[in-house]
Structure formats: C-alpha cells, structure tokens
Amino acid sequence: MFYKKYIPLLLSILTLLNCSKNETSPLELETEEQLEPKPEEPIEPASEVYFTFNVANNLQTDKSDDWIILHDDSGNLLDFKPFEVGNSQVFKALETYLTEKITITILKFDSYSNQFGSGERYTLETFPDVEKGSHWNYKPIGIPRRAVEKNGEFSVKVQNFPGIMLMSDNIHPLFGTPHVTTPIQFSLYSASTNLTVDSGTRELELGTFPNYSGTEYLFSVWDKNDELKYQLFEAPEGEDYITLNYDEFSPFDSQISLKLNPNKFNSFRLTGFDETQSFKNTDIGYFLMAFENTSQSDVPIGFLDRFNNYKTFYAVESSDESYTYRFLKQGKKPLAEDFIIPEKPSIVMENTTIYDFNFIVNQNYVRKTNEWSSTFTNLNSDNISIKWKVHSTQEKYPKMGEIPLEILNKYTNLTTSDLEMTLTHLYLKSDPYPKFLFKSFGPNEQEFDVDFEERAIVWKEE
Question: Which of 27, 239, 251, 279 could link 448 by a cystine bridge, Cβ 3.0 to 4.6 Å?
C-alpha cells in the first residue's frame, strides 16, 4: 500500500524529466544563433591616388594659363586643375570610377597685343595610355646652355682663300658654309670674299663672334675647289681680328656623300661632341656642316676623329609637297645609307575628326602623332589660333574626352568644332610609346640620348 501511494508522484517526475530532454536550453539557443552567418555589410569603395603631377621650378608659366585635364580610357572626365611653376598636384578618386589607363591633356593659353595686332593662342597636347598611379615631372624641353663669360668680340680673316662653294640657288639665301662654331654657340654667316689687289689673292672676312677666352673654335668650309677643310683656333682676349691662313687648313679625317634627289625643301645639321664637351651636359656641340634648301645634288659630309659622338638631323620634303621624311641620329657618325629615303607609304584617311580619327596605312610604325588646328578672327578682330596635338600607339587611337565646360565658359574662343587635321607623323623608328612618355615626364632632365635613332614620315593634309 505504501508503494501505491507514491506511484502518481513518480510518474509526474518521470514526465517532467522526459520533457526537459526534448527542450533546448538558453545556452544551446545562443550557440546555434552564433553559428548562423550574419548578412555582410556593404564595403565602401576606397579612394586612391591615381596620378601625381609635379611642375618643375624652372618652367615658365607666368605669361600663360596652364591646365591639366584627365580622362579615363573611355573618354569620361576625371578631373582638371590649373597649375603654376613649382606646383605638385595629387589626383584622387574612388577606385570603382577608375580604369587601368588614363589620358592626360595639357592646355596652354596666352594672349598678345603688339603693333601687328592682338590675339589669343591655345595649344593642347594629349597623351593617352598613361598607367594609373603614374608620377609625372613636367619640365622644360632640353637643358639650358651653360653660362660662359664673354670677353668682347672679334672677326676672322682668312688669307689665301679659294672661294666658297655656294649651296643654294638664286631664290634661297646662302646657308651652310663657311661657319665658325663653339660648343656653346652656333654662328652662321652669309660671307663674301674680298679680293686683295696687292697680292691678287682672296681674303675672306667673317664676323663678329663673341670672344669666349680659353674656348676652342672650329672653322669649317666647303670651298670652291670642292674640298671640305677645317681649322681649330682660340681667340686671345682683347683681339679684334683673328687672322688665319687657308694653306694651314686641314682636310676632314673622313667623309661621305649625301645625295639629294629632286625635292621641295631640305635641311641638314651635323654636330660633333668630344670628351671635353660631354653630350650629356648643356653643350650643343661643334657644327661640322649645316645647310638648308641647297640646290646641290651631291653634298660632302665630313667627320673628325676627335669627336666621340655626333648628332645628325636631316629632313627632305617631297617634290609634290605631300610628305616630309625626317631622320635624327645621336651617337655614332651617320653612314651614307642612313640618308636613303624610304618609299612613300599608301595612306587612306577614313575619318579626320579629332574625336573619331581613323586611317589605313600599309606601313609598320612605332607610334604616331596627329595634329589639328584652326585659325579665325573673332568679333573683336582678334586673331585666334588653336592647335591640338594627340600622341598614340600604332594599335589604337584614344577615345578623346571633351574639354570641361568650365574651361570652355572661361575661354569663349576655345572651340573645337572647326579643327582641321594638318599633320600626321608616323614614327617608323623611335622610342616605343612607354619609353617616350618616360623620357618626356620621368625624373631626369631631357638629355642627349646616345645611340638614339628616329625616322619619321610626316603627311600634310590638304
């Protein structure tokens, strides 16, 4: 009887224990909730520096308005800012708005007023395919020449001179020989020969030249006997005349022949650099030969063994004026085959507008530069000139972006609707485009780049 009395109580306890096994404790609930993934909060896009633009302290910006304009490679505007000498501009944007390549445009504006009239000049230059994150150093082209103290002036007399080989026709002025140069300054004169009655010999007089004491001068000439001759001399301080004897002049150590086919225009420069006049510094070198628009078909070009490096420039415009061939070589002396002009490629312009340029040419090339321009007179009778140069690779022409509206509102004469293509430069041999950008905007000054060669064909648009 005693056990029957407690049976209901035992059943109740068992029932409660069984229920507690099936229920989840608060601790277990909390653990399960922690294991369930929570929805991720959206990540804000980060801002990054996509371009840095440093302006050199020796760049002149005081007489012009200067702007930098940035687009992505789809032509969308990223930013634009004015800049002055010594500025450092840092451009930032959300990374989601950026492309891996950007396009940089430099805009310059200046106005003038003189006795011939007044006007405005706008020059733009565009560089596409710039790597995101690039640092540019905007600096003057070339290195300033070194300053040398001048001690008066002097003229040169050459006795027993046979005469000058004229290098131009009756239409164009004499240009080319003789000339006297230093590594600091190039002087070129249209000289005349004077006949000395006493001896019956010719005497050549040139002048005047700045006197840089202690500097060696080079006198070079293509004479009437069809010979290249030269003489090196120094100018004593305080002397008004330096007298040289042509009998003591020496022939050049070696020479080649530059053969000119019929052409509309030609130009040639050859300068030499020795060990004391380093081509990496500010000297321009000694001019050995220079001419422009010569009517001669066969011109001798001379070289001196003392020069370790040369700088050669040669340009010829075709007789029909449709294109120009340009050749530049720095380093070794040029060879006769360097002056052979390649055949004219076939070129078909499919679209000549700056925003949608396209053409076909049967010629491989390293890179290209296209130029557009327009000139007009506004309502105030001001002369307006607009020039826009666009660089690009062979593979593609950039997607050009529009000039910002704020800039167009500021310069109301800056219009692009009337731009017409004027020139197309195809660089058959030159620096590849990335190296071209680095040399133009890298950390170093633009120097004489030894072992550099560039060949280009330039078309004129009618």
Answer: 279
Residues of 216-246 as b/e, b for ≥16 C-beta within 10 angstroms?
Answer: ebbbbbbbeeebbbbbeeebeeeeeebebeb
pTM as predicted: 0.83
Both tokens of residue 206?
């040139």
User: Who's near 179: CB < 8 A, 6+ residues apart?
Assistant: 186, 187, 188, 189, 219, 220, 221, 287, 290
Tell me 383's DSSP state. Answer: E
- Of 258, 290, 317, 292, nearest to 172 by C-alpha is 292
pLDDT tens digit string along 331-373?
A: 899 999 999 988 888 889 999 999 999 999 999 999 999 999 9
- Label residues 409-421 b or e (16+ Cβ within 10 Å = b): eebebbebeebeb
d(CA 62, CA 442): 23
| 403 touches 395 (CB < 8 A) | no
Q: Which two tokens stand for residue 430?
A: 């030159």
Radius of gyration of the chain (CA): 36
Tokens of 187: 């002087």
Cα dihedral 449, 332, 429, 300 in deg (nearest 10): 130
- What does the chain come to in residues? 462
Q: Name the burial class of residue 298, with classes exposed (0-12), middle (13-18) and buried (19+) by CB atoms within 10 angstroms of its CB.
A: exposed
Residue 28 predicted with pLDDT over 90? no
Q: What letter represents residue 150's amino acid?
A: K
The answer to whether residues 216 and 233 touch, using CB atoms and an 8 Å cutoff, is yes
**Pick from 235, 298, 288: nearest CA to 262:** 298
- Tell me, rounded to whole angstroms, the distance of Cα 453 from its chain centroid: 14
Provide the residue type at 253 as one letter. Answer: D
CB count within 10 Å of CB 185 equals 18
Distance CA 262, CA 296 (A): 10
Task: State how far Cα 214 lies from the chain centre.
Answer: 35
pLDDT of residue 343: 85
- Closest residue by Cα to residue 94 from 131, 42, 134, 45: 45
Q: What is the DSSP string of 88-126?
A: EEEEEEEGGG--SEEEEEEEEEEEEEETTEEEEEEEEEE
